[in-house]
Design a protein that fits this description.
single chain; 123 residues; alpha+beta; Alpha-Beta Plaits; 3 helices; 24% helix
């Protein structure tokens, strides 16, 4: 099983109860596909940085981040489900980077000393 992150932007006009219901449906779908939801972070309503063609005059969205473990075959049917889910503005499923790989120590680049010699026979 691999770890994944799913970022979902929900239209906030639908209301708090509908947003909670949609979050529950997404969690249930992940479980139905054989995944295991580790954590759900509800970031709340945030201002959008760009306009979306499919939703006019939308300035804000409710951000939700799901962390889940699943087989590599799960993201494809999950994306298909999310594409037809009403009130989703955007979504993105990404392979999660393990925490120990994110905290890699950066070492300074060592550049070898270069010796410069004069070329040509000028004195």
């Amino acid at each position: 099983m691999k770890s994944y992150e799913l970022m979902v932007l929900i239209n906030p006009i639908v209301g708090e109860a509908a947003i909670e219901g949609l979050i529950k449906k997404i969690e249930d779908k992940i479980i139905a596909l054989g995944g295991e939801v580790k954590k759900t972070d509800k970031w709340g309503v945030k201002k959008l940085q760009s306009d979306f063609k499919n939703v006019k005059n939308l300035k804000n969205a409710f951000y939700v981040l799901f962390y889940f473990d699943a087989l590599p075959s799960v993201p494809l049917p999950l994306k298909a489900y999310l594409k037809v889910t009403e009130h989703l503005v955007r979504f993105s499923v990404m392979l999660a980077v393990p925490k120990d790989e994110r905290e890699v120590e950066v070492k300074p680049l060592e550049i070898p000393e270069i010796k410069v010699e004069a070329v040509g026979g000028q004195s």
